[in-house]
Design brief:
The chain is mainly alpha-helical. The chain is built from five helices and no strands. The longest helix has 26 residues.
Length: 118
C-alpha cells in the first residue's frame, strides 16, 4: 500500500494527538479518530489507531510504573479483553459487508459526535 504524503502527515498528527491525550489532555485524542478515518477510511483507520493506543499505554505504564496501581490495572484486564473481543467481532462483521458504503466510517462519525456531546 503506497501512502500519499498527506496520509503520512495525517498519521503523524494523529500519533502526536494520541501522545498528547496520554499525557493529560484526554479530550485531544478524540480528534485523531475522525482524522485517521478521513485519511484512510473506516476499517484501515482502526488498524492504524490500535497500535498507536497500545504503544501509548505501554509507554505510560513503563514511565509511571512506580506510581501505577497494579491491582486496578489487573482488575480492568477482563473488561479490556472482553471489549477487544466485541470490537473484533464487530469489525469482522462489518468487514464481511459487501456494501460499497463505508459503514464503519459512519459508525465512527456517530460515535465521535456522541463523545463530543458528552
Amino acid at each position: 500500500m503506497d501512502l500519499a504524503p498527506i496520509q503520512w502527515t495525517y498519521g503523524a498528527v494523529a500519533a502526536f494527538l494520541v501522545g498528547v491525550s496520554k499525557t493529560g489532555l484526554p479530550g485531544v485524542g478524540i480528534l485523531s479518530v475522525p482524522l485517521l478515518a478521513w485519511a484512510f477510511g473506516g476499517l484501515p483507520s482502526v488498524g492504524i489507531m490500535l497500535p498507536m493506543l497500545i504503544c501509548g499505554d505501554i509507554f505510560a505504564v513503563a514511565w509511571y510504573r512506580r506510581h501505577a496501581q497494579w491491582d486496578k490495572l489487573i482488575g480492568l484486564l477482563p473488561w479490556v479483553v472482553g471489549g477487544m473481543a466485541v470490537g473484533a467481532g464487530a469489525l469482522w462483521m462489518v468487514g464481511k459487508s459487501t456494501s460499497r458504503k463505508d459503514i464503519l466510517g459512519i459508525i465512527i462519525g456517530i460515535m465521535t459526535l456522541a463523545m463530543l456531546a458528552l
